[in-house]
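Section 5.1 Outputs to date
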Amino acid sequence: MIRLIDISLLRGGRPLLSDANLTIHPGRRVGLIGANGTGKTSLFKLLQGELELDGGDLQINPQWRIAHMAQEVSASDRRAIDYVLDGDTELRQLQCDIELAQAAEDHLKHASLLEQLDAIDGFNAEVRGRRLLHGLGFADGEVERLVTDFSGGWRIRLNLARALMCPSDLLLLDEPTNHLDLDACFWLEAWLKRYQGTLLLISHDRDFLDSVVDEIASLEQQQLQLYKGHYSAYERQRAERMALQQAAFEKQQRRVGEIQDFVRRFRAKATKAKQAQSRLKELERMELIAPAHADSPFKFHFLNSDKSSDPLLGLTDAKLGYGERVVVETESVRIHPGSRIGLLGANGAGKSTLLKSLVNDLALVDGERICGEHLQIGYFAQHQLEALDMSASPLLHLQRLTPTTSEQEIRNFLGGFNFHGEDATGSIVNFSGGEKARLALAIVAWGKPNLLILDEPTNHLDLEMCHALTVAIQQFEGAVVVVSHDRHLLKNSVEQFWLLSAGTVEEFDGSLDDYHHLLQQLKQQQAIQNSAQAATADSKVLDKKAQRQYEAELRKQLAPLKKRCQKLEQELEKVSLQLATVEQALADVAIYEDDNKARLQTQLLKQAELTQSTEDIESQWMIAQEELEQKELLLRQQ
């Protein structure tokens, strides 16, 4: 059980939590939500022991194994599969101990360690690790690549796989769906549903939360409020609670007004002074109810272009890819005014390649790109966050686009993205990933596009901003093409899907639920095929556990013979070195001079003795080796 009792937590002198309380029971799956900067990640660090409380008490089972998803990966020359397996420290320690026991020929300890490894399913660890990587979108060949070969987003996936690989009683995941595609989100969702420990999950993905968690812990006004049920249930409960709170607040304000009015009227009158003082004491005792803060800080829209064309954009007989490598081919795709298109497809199918080709960031390998006369693209992609000018303010970013626009008009617009005061006029160098994403979206919205092309726009955004983005897309009058793992965004902003599969682009006649069912059918077919292959393989080999026990017993019986062979090999190596030294001395012409006759005779005698010793040892080694091979053959036939 996790218990937070009247805890206070400060960061940089700013209170994140103040006298907050929360209880999480074992086995619960809890979604932790709250606006960016309210303390979600700090709470995770607190549970991991990386932060100290400023007040209150944290109670957590000291025996619990805690696994968490790191947000950064340092450069490493480890293979991806090895990096993931390193997450299971118990496994790695056992493997190390087994190697030491084997090297020391401690066969009893070796056999015991093998049993411990079998108890934690260690012999199948690499298979499990590869399954995790495949589920998160890594191809077969990629699991052998070095960590340094992957981009930042893919390294975060490696961190996620490493956290899932680690046996744990408490699993802490901070925005695990960032950098995942929709297929990987479906896989992760299924994996977490099977997880047996306690899960604490930070996520902006409403549908993901709805599917995975059974409680919501909301960071509100430096407090932690626990709601039963998934995210949609939280929304209903919170709306009801806020409505009751607002009603209570208004009722209390009426009572406060009545008291203050009574005091003003009768405080000076002797006959009413006592009652006035009583009213004042009532006012002092009254615990003031905070007004409901249900309004989102984000409210913006995409400025619409004055002109349009039909079609806005298209590709004809196009081959898309990099250099000579073609990733996607299409005979004809067209984007018309008002189109609402979502791209579906597995990782590597070419979704980002198609977007880059549409915006002309990537030249076509072959074919034609057709642009409407009045085409104005608003393009959002993760690399654009890195292209922001860190020394400039949000205000300056927009002023550079439209120098003649008044500063107040730009400030008003930025306010819809919750950039106020110094946040709007100061440098963005210390902006978080979420703040940079908001600014990049503001730049796109300011450009008056008639075609929005969005590549994973919800990464780094909190739930309130995701909701505001969904509303803004709904109100946008132009065309939209979007790639996103956020199902709520897709369900509420697109009207048709394009499926990228087998190197082609085709219209998908179905919903997201239909696409999910298609993926499940494909996985079931693959599972049946894998089971058939596994059954065939099992019919040809012994049961793995019995085979390991047999091999351990065999090593124990063969140990004395192997030890004798190794001892003879060491003696032979020692004699061979001595013989080489003698022969080197005999190769010196000076030894054959008259003055060195005695030395020559000594060296010749040594050569003869060492040669004979070499032959004797080799003969003994051959006999011992033959005996060892016969014994191995005899034991294997038993």
